[in-house]
Amino acid sequence: MKSFKTFRVLAAALPLSIACSTMLESDDPADDDLVVGDDKMDTPYYSTLAMELAAEFVGEIREEHESPAAANARAESLRSTTESWTVASLVDNHAKFAMNKVKSDKLHMNLNGNSLSSKDVSVSGRTVTFKYVAKTEVLVQKEDLKKAGIPLSSLNGKSTTVKVPADLRNIAQKLGTRCAEGMDAGDTPQDYNYFYYWKPDKPGCDAPMTDATLKLSSLLPKKTTYPEYNKLTEDGKIEVVVFFGAADHDEVVKESDWGMYNWRTFTRDLTSRGFRKASDQNPGGRYTRTNRGVQVIVDVYGPRDLQAANHDSSGIFAQAIKTHEIILYNGHSFYGSLDVLDKKENYPEGKYQVFMFASCWSYEYYTKQIFENKKSAADPNGWALADVVNNTEVTWFHNDAPASRIVLMNIIAGAESGGKDGTRNYHWGNIIDQMNRQALQAQADHKTDSHEVWGVSGVRENKFRPKR
Asked: Is residue 20 predicted with pLDDT exceeding 50?
């Protein structure tokens, strides 16, 4: 399984999806988008299908350098507070090699932006040893616990030991495929994605290794919170951008590509919900609607729009983050290498934003990058101005359009109604519940072997409350 979203459908449905794709496109009534019930549970991460636990990741890196002088220089740089970004990046990249073992234990560890709580750097001759402890979070799915008969309370204090490389430098060049497994025919792992194919017990694997430990602790507290609707509507309008990437990697995007299907479905659903096409952009298209005094502007980019921009998706994405309040990304995860999210200058100062990543394992890959760049002296967690909707399983391309539609239409309904409209409460618990209901129904309809597990991070401290 690749770390990007897999393009799979039932064999019987494949000819239909290529030759008659319009027959697959949905015509869901607008009311089907909106939340039902009122499940009042929420956390800094919230999901109806999974729970988040605090955890510690304890690791050790050993690097052999060409001389004692080089080893001492490296050690000094790791000790220095001025090299904090280097250290954080090193810890994140090292922890990623735990992913496969941790997943086999039915745990999903956040892979980016782990908070370093201690470090120890020592030198012996030409060898630098860097020991660290990082605070992180781990998700566990309720269904997995139920099937295994494991009570949630038993996870507190649970430890998992993982074999990880001792040295990450030029790992792909040094090891080739000797410690990697699962690549497509003809592919070779690279430094940035070697963790995904890491197979330490593969016969012939001769990589120097160390033991790392993931230790679970407390279940994080729960409460009901809403998107910050007052911040979204304070200027009377909400600016939204939606990206639909191509599923295949063809030089020219085919009409039958699932990305094209999602783009067509989503734009048609916008018009059926009262949006009108205001203009064609270059690239992209703009749709607008005004209801209850709230103007909503939706910029939509399809696979061919991105291709027409000479593949400048990073530049378009960076500009979109700077200028929009709601950013919905549908596409491949690219092994967690969307580095446009790592640059603080790409985020507007002082603006509350909602992100959604409909891509494989986006909880593990992308959530903390956003919070790290939203931090300020007044907001050390980065939660005050960002909520991040994410997934901790494979994301299926046929679910991109409905997932985007459901999260967007419920946020719009909440913004227009002040968070509550009759019996409908547009808090994060109900919105995520609606997304997960769709994912479960789609699994039954398409007979896929998995489904998305949607959740939202960064919402514990949201302050908005309905007035009625």
From this structure: no
CB half-sphere exposure, 20, CA atoms < 13 A: 5
Give dist(CA 414, CA 32) in Å, integer.
15
Amino acid identity, position 281? Q
Say how far apart CA 140 and CA 43 lie, in whole Å. 14
Are residues 104 and 154 in contact, defined by beta-carbon separation less than 8 angstroms?
no
> Which of 393, 459, 404 has its CA nearest to residue 435?
404
- Three-state secondary structure of 222-242: CCCCCCCHHHHCCCCEEEEEE
Cα–Cα distances (Å) from 457 to 82, 225, 393, in that order, read 29, 11, 15
CB atoms within 10 A of CB 117: 12
Among candidates 318, 287, 299, 297, which has minimal Cα distance to 233? 297
Q: In the CATH hierarchy, which top-level class contains the domain 14-44+223-457?
A: alpha beta
Strand pairing class (276-280; 159-165)? unpaired
Nearest to 411 by CA among 225, 224, 226: 226
Tokens of 348: 């507007």
Compute the distance between CA of residue 395 and CA of residue 13 in angstroms, rounded to an integer.
18
Q: Burial-class residue 54 by CB neighbours within 10 Å (0-12, 13-18, 19+).
A: middle
What is d(CA 253, CA 9) in angstroms, rounded to the nearest whole number?
Answer: 18
373: left (phi over 0), alpha (psi -120 to 50) or beta: alpha
For CA atoms 38, 42, 45, 46, give the dihedral sign.
negative
Please state, in angstroms and rounded to a whole number, the distance separating the CA atoms of residues 287 and 271: 8
SS (H, E, C) 92-141: HHHHHHHHHHHHHCCEEECCCCCEEEEEEEEEECCEEEEEEEEEEEEEEE
pLDDT of residue 231: 96
Domain with CATH 3.40.50 in the chain: 14-44+223-457
Task: Report if pTM > 0.70.
Answer: yes
DSSP annotation string for 145-161: HHHHT--GGGGTT-EEE
Position 387 confidence tier, pLDDT thresholds 50, 70, 90: very high
Kindly state the tokens that stand for 47: 């999901």
d(CA 364, CA 83): 24
- Asked if the model's pLDDT at residue 24 lies above 50, the reply is no
DSSP letter, residue 199: -
When the pLDDT of each residue in the chain is averaged and rounded to a whole number, the result is 85
Q: Are 213 and 136 in contact (CB under 8 A)?
A: no
